[in-house]
Amino acid sequence: MVLLIESLILCALFTLPIIIASKNPITMIHDYPPAIIEKVRELGLIDETQTRKSKKSIIKKSFAAILFVFLLAAAVRYANGADSFGKGFFYAYILWTIVNWYDVIFMDIIWFCHDKRYIIPGTEGMKEYKDYMFHIKGGFIGMLYGLPVALIVGTIVAVLN
Fold it and tell me: How far apart are CA 1 and CA 50, in angstroms?
């Protein structure tokens, strides 16, 4: 039951910034498929500093990951009662994976791929907006990113004990 409640809270916390950013989809351009990013760049709506590999994007995602690590560490230590590296790692990775696939299935495939608010003017009709495989592949990559996060959380839990 605790895991379910934590999952719902983390998914809600993950959704909030997306809702805020949906007012201007270009603020999330680094999460769009490459063909759309390239078209938006050709239209002059973004420059090289607004890509997935830009310093700004990496810093923003790193900050979010660090914040998420501490949220996860607190959740698994105090809510789940994890008292060892293994339990901390396990709970953190399970929570990461739940939020990751929530992002892929609900946020990306169901919402992003079908909501006109995310279509950037000048890119209407691009088939990449409904490229489900782009998001699914990203989900598997996200699972890999979850491993070092879970390792760090497991370490934090072990140190706290």
Answer: 40
| pTM for the structure as a whole | 0.86
Q: Roughly what angle, to the nearest 10 degrees, separates helices 132-160 and 55-74? A: 50
Q: 25 with 120: CB under 8 angstroms?
A: yes
Tokens 């090289």 belong to residue: 48
The pLDDT of residue 24 is above 70 = yes
Which among 158, 151, 5, 159 is positioned nearest to 75, based on CA atoms?
Answer: 5
Burial of 111 (0-12, 13-18, 19+ CB in 10 A): middle
Q: Whole-angstrom Cα distance, residue 149 to residue 8?
A: 19
Q: Give the model confidence (pLDDT) of 106-135 as tens digits.
A: 999 999 888 888 889 999 999 999 999 999
Q: Pick left, alpha or beta for residue 94 (phi over 0 → left; psi -120 to 50 → alpha; otherwise beta).
A: alpha
Task: State the chain's mean pLDDT as an integer.
Answer: 89
CA 18, CA 55: separation in Å to the nearest integer?
20
Distance CA 26, CA 98 (A): 26
Helix ranges (DSSP H) in 103-131: none
